[in-house]
Structure formats: structure tokens, C-alpha cells
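Quick one, C-alpha cells below:
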């Protein structure tokens, strides 16, 4: 009722764009408002809402079946359909009778590599709240300012990376059922054991950003670990700091398993915008985004992820290593940004109609 009221109180638009999910009851409401106001409905399919409900209630639950029926029926009421993968486009055509155009998610322009001086500012800011970003020891020179990763000469303003600094691993999550962080924790335990066994590996700072229903559960699991060479923190970052963190990190990890098998994780898109290589858990259409051994690595379980962490961080930081090669490949890929992608792909569709 609130959504319908808001739509009816506005000046009629030529188009109503709706991202799905969530689409219950938004698809029906937007279609009805469009009928009354003469607006055309455009649905941007990022996943299927019923498949996400199925993670909690099970695929055969009456509510899930009802949601699927609703989504299938109401999804056909749109004037134009966009979707985020070719696999979803094919599924919509074959199983839903809906013709869609693939529009891959692209990073916004502010997702980019972070200059070293901004990295230092971010690390110093975060160190006031999170111990993982604090220096292990104070500099002998009082004119130096030090974080766990960087050091700044107050007189010259020069920022340098600390020798022997930890590697910075980043993951982001909404802490929901489609991401199993026990995989990462098990891999970190294996990584810790490798260091204890004498492997030449750096200490690790693992930052998992975001908030959601399972955060408290995983925070308890993290507290039960007794890492000596790994620090894990789970901050909720200001919006402006998130891209700076991605642009400062050494490796991203994605544990998103699509509930439908047909959508792609936006977090990886943002990481690639920052030229940050990614290790991602495998699912049906991930190959449309993550190119194994080109811009990152794909794994199936914690054992494989642990082996990848060992290989990527061996002799860290290694200018000739695979991690730097992935960064170079991402820089040379000349990725489209969101606004340019929109102008090339979506704008012609609506100007033609």
C-alpha cells in the first residue's frame, strides 16, 4: 500500500525500473501503478526471489511454491526485462517464457586502486577501532606514524609499505545462508598450520565486512579460533571506506553460492574494479565473471582454498608472483564502468521503445 501510494503521488514516469528480488509484492504493485499512470515496467532480474526463500524454508515449502508461481506470472507483465547473466537469460526464455537482455553488473567509477597515502589514512583510521590495523611496535623515530601495513614520515609526508607486513585478505557478505564462511575459517586454520610447520608465508589480516542475520553466529566461531599468525575482524565500514579497503587489499575471497545458480556476486565486480584478484567458490555460471588462472582462482572446498592461499602468498610480496600477474591482467582488461555500460546497453533499449 505504501509503495503504491508513493508511486501514485509522483509525476508519471515513462518507465518504472524494478530490481528483482525483492519482487513480492513489488512486481504486481509497479505493474498496477504503470497501468494507471501509463508507465512501462522494466524488471532487472538479479536472481529469483523464490530461490532465496527456499534456502530458509526448503524448495518444497508452500510459501516458496506460491512465491515461484507469483514471480513466474507477474514477471511476464513487464514491458522489458534485463538480467545479469547469459545463463539467466536462457533460463528465463526456456522456463518462464520471458525474453530478456543480458546486462552484466559493472563497478562504479569510485571502485579503483587506492594510492598508498590514502591506504595509510584508512589504516590509521581503522586502527583506532580495530586492533588488526595497529602496528605491532611503535616506530623508534617519533616523527614516523605507523599502521600494521604502512609507515608515514611526518616531515616529508612520504608513505612506504612496512617490510614484513601482513597480507590483507578481504571478503564482504550480507551474512546469509547462501554464503558458508566455515569454508574460509577452515582454510585459515590450514594456512595457520602451514606457517607453524615452517612454510614461508606472511601473517594474515582477514577483514570480513558487512552485516546480516548470521553475523553473530560466525563471530562466535571466529572467537573460538586461537590463531597466532592470523587476525580476523568483522567491521561495518562507512560507504566511502569500502572501496578504499578493496583498493588497498592483496586478495579478495568470495563465498557466494547463488541460490538459483544463475546470478553473479556484485562484490566480485567491485573487487575487479579495484584490480583486486579473487578466489571464489564455484557455482554454475561463475565462469561468466571469474576467469580461472586469469583474474583469479575458483575453488570447490576449504582444502582447495587453503592450497590457493598458500600458492598466492608464498614469498609474499613477490613482484613476479601469480597474485601480481592477476592484478596486471585486471589493469589491462580495461573494464567498462557502470555508467558507460548503461549508455551502451540499456539506454538504446528504452530510447527505441
Amino acid at each position: 500500500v505504501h509503495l503504491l501510494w508513493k508511486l501514485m503521488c509522483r509525476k508519471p514516469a515513462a518507465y518504472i525500473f524494478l530490481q528483482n528480488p525483492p519482487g513480492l509484492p513489488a512486481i504486481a504493485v509497479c505493474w498496477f501503478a504503470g497501468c494507471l499512470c501509463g508507465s512501462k515496467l522494466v524488471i532487472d532480474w538479479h536472481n529469483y526471489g523464490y530461490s532465496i526463500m527456499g534456502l530458509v524454508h526448503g524448495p518444497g515449502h508452500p510459501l516458496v511454491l506460491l512465491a515461484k508461481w507469483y514471480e513466474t506470472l507477474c514477471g511476464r507483465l513487464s514491458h522489458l526485462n534485463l538480467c545479469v547473466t547469459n545463463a539467466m537469460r536462457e533460463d528465463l526464455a526456456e522456463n518462464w517464457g520471458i525474453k530478456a537482455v543480458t546486462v552484466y553488473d559493472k563497478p562504479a567509477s569510485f571502485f579503483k586502486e587506492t594510492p598508498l597515502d590514502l591506504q595509510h589514512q584508512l589504516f590509521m583510521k581503522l586502527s583506532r577501532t580495530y586492533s588488526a590495523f595497529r602496528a605491532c611496535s611503535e616506530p623508534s623515530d617519533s616523527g614516523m606514524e605507523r599502521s600494521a601495513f604502512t609507515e608515514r614520515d611526518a616531515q616529508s609526508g612520504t608513505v612506504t609499505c612496512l617490510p614484513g607486513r601482513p597480507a590483507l585478505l578481504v571478503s564482504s557478505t550480507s551474512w546469509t545462508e547462501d554464503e558458508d564462511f566455515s569454508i574460509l575459517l577452515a582454510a585459515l586454520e590450514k594456512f595457520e598450520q602451514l606457517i607453524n610447520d615452517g612454510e614461508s608465508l606472511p601473517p594474515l589480516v582477514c577483514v570480513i565486512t558487512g552485516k546480516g542475520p548470521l553475523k553473530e553466529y560466525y563471530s562466535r566461531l571466529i572467537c573460538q579460533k586461537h590463531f597466532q599468525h592470523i587476525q580476523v575482524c568483522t567491521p561495518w565500514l562507512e560507504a566511502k571506506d569500502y572501496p578504499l579497503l578493496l583498493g588497498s587489499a592483496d586478495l579478495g575471497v568470495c563465498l557466494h553460492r547463488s541460490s538459483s545458480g544463475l546470478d553473479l556476486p556484485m562484490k566480485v565486480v567491485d573487487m575487479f574494479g579495484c584490480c583486486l584478484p579473487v578466489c571464489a567458490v564455484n557455482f554454475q555460471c561463475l565462469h561468466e565473471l571469474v576467469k580461472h588462472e586469469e583474474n583469479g582462482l575458483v575453488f570447490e572446498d576449504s582444502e582447495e582454498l587453503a592450497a590457493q592461499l598458500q600458492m598466492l602468498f608464498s614469498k609474499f610480496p613477490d613482484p613476479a608472483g601469480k597474485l601480481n600477474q592477476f592484478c596486471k591482467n585486471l589493469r589491462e582488461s580495461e573494464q567498462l564502468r557502470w555508467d558507460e555500460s548503461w549508455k551502451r546497453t540499456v539506454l538504446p533499449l528504452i530510447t527505441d521503445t
